Amino acid sequence: VTLGEGARCELYAVLAAAEYARLEIEVTLGKGAHFEFGGITVGGRDTVREFVTRTIHAEPEATSNQTVRAVHWGHGTGNFLGNIDVVRHAQKTDAAQDFKGLLLEKGASVNAVPQLEIFADDVKCAHGASVGQLDETARFYMAARGVSPDLARRLLVQAFLGDALVALEDDETREAMLKVALDKVDRAL
User: Fold this and answer.
1) Residue 107: left (phi > 0), alpha (psi -120 to 50), or beta?
2) d(CA 189, CA 60)
3) Using an 8 Å Cβ cutoff, are 10 and 33 in contact?
4) Under 8 Å between Cβ of 23 and 52
5) What is the phi-psi region of residue 141: left when phi exceeds 0, alpha when psi lies from -120 to 50, beta otherwise?
6) DSSP bridge pairs for 115
7) What's the rounded Cα separation, in Å, for the pair 164 and 181?
């Protein structure tokens, strides 16, 4: 995708089907352009689901934001390989990548390789990655208030995955995408 001056591109995706699924995205941003990406991978058994992004800030004042969430179980794997390139004259760039993985069972894995390659001086760029399990304190808190263990797990997973779709303004589309991801988790566990 090539975005001209002041253009905006929003892309949201849920990878929940097929044994192997990979979505590769390369975006080049013009002056003042914005790229928004929200991605979710969910899977178990021996599935592999991955996003590969390359965001090229080719002109000044462009912004980009990438939020990826991965929930896996069994021997499922979720991968995120994200590269942000800021060329020398792309001053005032503001770019961010945020990846979080949630492991629901031992044997599952999530991997993140966020990369920044910055050649400009006046930029604001950030990336982060973390992996963990469900918060047992939150599950206990919910159980103490009468919430069943299955519902507590579903609510925690829903809140976790919902981060990837926060910027999606169309409520109906956001709910439909979240439903695809949650249905996959519900069928598996």
Assistant:
1) left
2) 47
3) no
4) yes
5) alpha
6) 83
7) 11
Q: What is the pLDDT along the chain (189 residues), one digit of tens a residue?
A: 999 999 999 999 999 987 899 999 999 999 999 999 999 999 988 899 999 999 999 999 999 999 999 999 999 999 999 999 999 999 999 999 999 999 999 999 999 999 999 999 999 999 999 999 988 888 888 888 999 888 888 899 999 999 999 999 999 999 999 999 999 988 876
- The H-assigned helical ranges of 2-148 are 136-144
Q: What share of the chain is helix, strand, coil (3-state, %, to 5)?
A: 25, 50, 30
For residue 82, how far is the Cα from the chain centroid? 10
Task: Please count the other Cβ atoms lying within 10 Å of the Cβ belonging to residue 15.
Answer: 24
